Amino acid sequence: MLKKSILKALLVGALGMGLVSPVSAEEVVNVYSARIDKLIKPAFDAFTEETGIKVRFTTAKAPVLLERLRYEGRHTEADLLITVDAGNLWHAANAGVLQGVKTPTLSTNVPENLTDPEGKWYGLTVRSRTIVYSPERVKPEELSTYEALGDPKWKGRLCLRTSKKVYNKSLVATMIASAGYDETAKVLENWMKNEPIIHPKDSGVLKAIAAGQCDVGIVNTYYLGRELKKNPNFPVALFWANQEGRGAHVNISGAGVTKHAKNKANAIKLLEFLSSEKAQNLFADENMEYPVNPKVSASSLVTKWWGDDFKMDQVNLRFAGRFQAMATKFMKRAGYK
Ligand code: FE
Q1: Residues of the signal sequence (predicted)?
Q2: How high is the pLDDT of residue 282?
Q3: pTM of this prediction?
């Protein structure tokens, strides 16, 4: 009941903001976005300029948008959902608020492993969640895999973000998909034996390494990008994990057409546009992410990181969702807070 009243208040808020407006002859597409204005607006403006289709959007946290889509059901005004992490997109697909869409343009622009097999969501940008270290106290030769961070040599030297964050749930879920249940449970146990310092944010992990509180950690690449943008001498370096094996974990920001989209054709046009060469850099560069479209090159710092020899985990990201509940259970059992 309480939930419903909160959602009702949100809906009334949306009406007030003008997201939900009377029907007009004008071509529109309505977007619910968990990505902030700064990251999406330039690409939306370029879309409107090219197609004449107006983009109306509202931003909120991913779980709020998902709840709202569920509550609104077929009455929703949203045509497209944009959010981060395949775990979130999988949840949305699983909750029945997205519909499968397949077009030749989308299958050319977005690699298969970054796409839902039923076309309910598509990756738009790629980020890796990989190992970071202090180049002052650690030699890169000492590093190899996520699993090896459980080695006793890292006792008291490891910083991790809280297991409550979807990014870590997805990392562990894809580890379950690749390495299996037993191996993953063992890895988590070993990490915990090293008594990691748990931080609420990736930026906290980076700052802790810079400040000497710990020597190694795991973060999303763009957080390091942001620190380096502010200070090119920020004393933390990036290490691509598991290059001899399955590759470093990658995740996406992505989008899917809503089940009850009233402007479905326009939503597909926008999705195609966001995956196009023209929009990809507008979309990816701003947050130091990597474009999904293989024909597009990234901003110079990101290109420097993601050299030709970078190996990404090819596991289909739907497993980030499928094994998410299990990942959460495993982390809890290992005592990973
Ligand atoms: Fe993030």
Answers
A1: 1-25
A2: 82
A3: 0.86
